[in-house]
Specification:
- With 484 residues, the protein is α+β, with helices and mostly antiparallel strands.
- Helix content is 23%, strand content 35%.
- The protein contains 11 helices and 25 strands.
- The strands form 5 sheets. Strands 2-3-1-4-5-6 form a 6-stranded mixed β-sheet, with helices on both faces.
- β4 (100-106), α4 (113-124) and β5 (128-134) form a beta-alpha-beta unit.
- It is globular.
- The relative contact order is 0.10.
- It binds guanosine-5'-triphosphate.
């Protein structure tokens, strides 16, 4: 167990490709988590697809030891998070497990849509934030301009920001010093009844079901009888450990610490993310507030090209869903395509990634139908039904009204492309909510029907702006529309 005052828990958040995973590599290297021989690029992106595409899909946690200039030894729990909008759910979980955030901004690009979305999430979680201006080694780096953007667009002070190159490691030591000096230690009470947050869970071939936890009060140890409060399931802990980033068993996890436990848990579905873990004997009285469940918003059908592969497809989907609680699937029969599944995803990238994993990791040949969204139909008898397939549409005579999902989109773009982007949003039935400027960049807020966005909206924004605009969205709810 570690001294609370010497622990710092932080998430690394950023827009996609601004250098989070590379910065995490440098932090791990400087703290001696891995030897130079063990180090490979973006160690925390462990899936093949993550490494090939250079994107983070799954949030990862590492526990590092750092000896600061003041001579004290600190424990740093770092959570690397995905940058893409489809995986913002992963970001919210990491934020809930930490007290602080490191906001990485590419100093050649500036504040982008996901920088803003993730920074707001961190602010709403009451996080202390250190802005980090990355890619200082590149000639196009403009730290002064980017510091202004951080203040004007996000609205947080950038006077404490640190300029680094995650690639060469320059400035990263200064960042570590700033982390131990500026970020607050966690708070907690060792003597209070056990209260810990179930941050994540997944299936590991060596460890079985792994439960990532953040201890708030009390402590977790091997042999202890614990209870998951939401599911009311009881288990005995078999192993307690941390990732440094290799697996290391420890005796205890105390207040403020982040690590994992193994117990005799049969299935990942028994672990409700956001649940409170306590002891059977002296349960905590206060349950943690948990997380909003993640909702799939994009749906498509997936069918095996060869019908004999149906069973293999079902087994593969079951395996994938074990490690990805946001992926949903249910059997579907199509007159043209035969037996298959209707699947729900967090967005188009999520769909693409699951599809690619089914093809590559499970050797399946698939037909995927065009993506669609969920429509909420209220019938004349006031019954509400959800449909994501036009073939399920009830008799129009019975329908009172139809609602479709809407999003609030934030688009950050260079001013010269504003006219064309406004035109695109209008064509897609958008309603303008706000337009502000920071220097020569426009920050545009629009409400749009999700259905108009799922197909090629992002690609169109990218091509109109020659890749300079960024886009982020959140679901705001359902609105009545005259739909056919
Ligand atoms: P996601 O995981 O997809 O959200 O991206 P990320 O923010 O983790 O970015 P990543 O670390 O994958 O870096 C994106 C690209 O920028 C990679 O090609 C890195 O090699 C490069 N990069 C990161 N930091 C630096 C830097 O300091 N200097 C230079 N020149 N390149 C960098």
């Amino acid at each position: 167990m570690n001294d609370l005052k010497k622990i710092r828990n932080f998430s690394i958040i950023a827009h996609i490709d601004h250098g989070k995973s590379t910065l995490a590599d440098r932090l791990i290297q400087i703290c001696g988590g891995l030897t130079d021989r063990e180090m490979k690029e973006q160690v925390l992106d462990s899936m093949d697809i993550e490494r090939e595409r250079g994107i983070t899909i799954k949030a990862q946690t590492v526990c590092l030891k750092y000896k600061a200039e003041d001579g004290n030894k600190y424990i740093l729990n770092l959570m690397d998070t995905p940058g893409h909008v489809d995986f913002s759910y992963e970001v919210s979980r990491s934020l809930a497990a930490c007290e602080s955030s490191i906001l990485v901004v590419d100093s050649t690009q500036g504040v982008e849509a996901q920088t803003l979305a993730n920074a707001y999430q961190a602010i709403n979680s009451n996080h202390e934030i250190i802005p980090v201006l990355n890619k200082k080694d590149l000639p196009a780096s403009e730290p002064v301009k980017i510091k202004d953007q951080i203040e004007n667009i996000i609205g947080i002070s950038s006077s404490d920001s640190i300029l680094v190159s995650a690639k060469t490691g320059e400035g990263v030591k200064n960042l570590l010093e700033k982390i131990v000096k500026k970020l607050p230690p966690p708070q907690g009470n060792l003597d209070a009844p056990l209260k810990s947050l179930l941050v994540d869970s997944w299936f590991d071939v060596y460890l079985g079901v792994v439960v990532l936890v953040r201890v708030i009060d009390g402590s977790l140890k091997k042999g202890q009888k614990i209870k998951f409060m939401a599911s009311n399931a009881a288990y005995t802990i078999d192993r307690v450990g941390i990732f440094n980033p290799k697996i290391q068993e420890v005796d205890t996890l105390g207040p403020g610490e982040i690590g994992f436990i193994n117990a005799n848990i049969k299935s990942v579905s028994d672990c409700r993310i956001g649940d409170t873990i306590t002891t059977e004997k002296h349960p905590t009285q206060k349950v943690l507030s948990g997380f909003k469940p993640s909702q799939p918003v994009v749906f498509c059908g997936m069918f095996p090209i060869d019908t004999v592969d149906f069973k293999q497809l079902r087994d593969s989907m079951e395996k994938l869903s074990l490690n990805d609680s946001s992926f949903m699937y249910e059997p579907e029969v199509s007159p043209a395509l035969g037996y298959g599944f209707r699947c729900g995803f967090l967005g188009l990238l999520h769909l693409e990634i699951i599809q690619e994993r089914l093809i590559r990791e499970f050797n399946l040949n698939l037909i995927t139908t065009a993506p669609s969204v969920v429509y909420q139909i209220t019938l004349k008898d006031k019954k509400v039904i959800n449909i994501h397939n036009p073939t399920d549409m009830p008799d129009p005579m019975k329908v009172d009204y139809i609602e479709e999902p809407w999003i609030k989109a934030t688009i950050i773009l260079p001013e010269e492309y504003l006219g064309s982007i406004l035109q695109l949003c209008t064509e897609r039935r958008g309603e303008q909510i706000d337009l502000t400027y920071s220097g020569s960049r426009a920050i545009l807020t629009y409400n749009l029907p999700l259905n108009e966005v799922v197909f090629d909206f992002y690609d169109r924004i990218k091509s109109i702006s020659r890749g300079y605009a960024s886009f982020d969205y959140e679901i705001i709810g359902y609105e009545i529309n005259d739909l056919v």
